Amino acid sequence: MRVEQEYKKTGYFWLPESEEDKIPGVLTISDGGRIELEIVGHFNEAIQASTDNTEISRIIGHVEGDGLVTLNDCFYTVKNIAFGGISKSKILVQQVLSGAAWEKDEAVTFNTLSFSVDCLDEWVGLSGIKVDRDWNNKTATISYSAPENISLMLNNGLKLKICFAYTLPGAPKVTEAKITQRAYFRLESDRLIDLSEFTTLVFKITNLMCFATNEIVTIKNLVATSREIQFEPITGKQSPVPISIYYQSIPFAEKTPKKNWHEMLFNFKTIADVAEEVFNKWLDAYEDLSPALNLYFSTQAGAQKYLDGKFLALAQGLETYHRRTSTETLMKPETFDSLVEEIIKGCPENHVEWLKGRLAHGNEINLGKRLKKIIEPFKQHLGSSSDRSKFLRKIVDTRNYLTHYSEDLKDKTAKGREMWAICQKMEVIFNLHFLKVIGFNEDKIDSVVENSHLLKRKLQEI
């Protein structure tokens, strides 16, 4: 989670069941979403409780500027006990809900959740700002008409909107007139749903944005509302209380990326006529492909610090992807079962269990064949038949060596820059399949490859 300005606020904090026992403290939320609460003393003055209990499910607070806050899933990182003096304790917090307080075991549910991600304005590419200049008469006219919200119905019954927030210049403005616009996503539900359901969707949509923009983008500005939490402003009409949400989300990039639309794999305009289908196909893909998707995105986010680890994650991801999308076997299941039965008949009784274990996966195709099947739809982008064979053989030998350390494969493995180049091509294979998953046809995929300098550069590495 991106926190563009450090959140550091003083206040009083207490346990939901002990509101009378308030403790002063400082709540800090750093960029990335790391949350720490520093308090004077601790929440249970009994020495036995102080030494034994380190976890606290929920803490309530009242902080400057924001009012009520709810801190969920907390545990002590420093728990000091003072005998007659003043001591401070530190608590790591997994989640902050700013704007309201929940009871100890009360479920956190909402009807809406709004959020943004890095580079979203550039990806959406829609602006209501229009500037007309007349250089001869030294005049300029700036007008603004907010773009219409884009509404997409998701298969899970929720609605996903792409909305536009804006600010207009106030009065009087003598030397400056400023109009700003910001795109953001808004998830809406007719029923109250658990916050975790919303954040799971946010994670998946953020990964789609990472894929589309060719960049690790981070979520920011999470605000939720519930029809059960209302306030009455001066208008006299009740309105939902906006609840700001903070937590340590993934993916996260320390440096805020800057990306122009032509540097992206595709932008919103590319999918505008089928956007609902694209988002649904991507979200539905997580039902079957989440292990492969997570392995791919872990390599993009830098989870593997060494090249060997990145290579193995990509190779495993491609193998997992094929396992999840194909039921192909070496022979028909009934033929294989009959063969196994015949083999076991001739096995000494004391080795039968061992043999069954060895044969359990004997009908599966090997990694080389899986990779060949994976690249088949896109082989025209991966060189000649000879080039593709060498490329696949190198992946298999390198994977087997790094996994099993067979000495006979040592001289056949990729190392250094060659391994890096192979990783680049494996990433492209993932990209092409992800495009297929979200509904891009062959012509549209060819167009993406032709217009993406990044993909072409990766394909030319070897």
Write structural notes for this entry.
The chain is of the alpha+beta class and 462 residues long. It has 3 domains: 92 residues, no CATH class; 156 residues, no CATH class; 142 residues, no CATH class. It is 36% helix and 26% strand. The strands form 3 sheets. Strands 1-2-3-6-5-4 form a 6-stranded antiparallel barrel. The chain has a two-stranded antiparallel sheet with strand order 8-9. Helix 5 packs antiparallel against helix 11, helix 6 crosses helix 9 and helix 6 runs parallel beside helix 11. The chain starts with 6 loop residues before the first strand and ends with a helix.
Quick one: overall form?
Answer: globular
- How confident is the prediction overall: mean pLDDT? 91
**DSSP, total strands:** 16
User: What is the rounded distance between the termini?
Assistant: 36 Å
Contiguous helical run count: 13
Q: Helices, strands, pairings?
A:
Blueprint (H helix, E strand, L loop, with lengths): L6 E8 L8 E7 L5 E6 L6 H6 L2 E9 L3 E12 L9 E11 L10 E9 L2 H5 L4 E6 L4 E6 L5 E4 L5 E9 L12 E15 H19 L5 E7 L4 E2 L7 E2 L2 E5 L20 H4 L3 H26 L6 H19 L7 H13 L6 H8 L7 H9 L9 H20 L11 H22 L4 H10 L1 H7 L3
Antiparallel strand pairs: 1-2, 1-4, 2-3, 3-6, 4-5, 5-6, 6-16, 7-12, 7-13, 8-9, 10-11, 11-12, 13-16, 14-15
Helix pairs in contact: 3-5, 5-6, 5-11, 6-9, 6-10, 6-11, 9-10
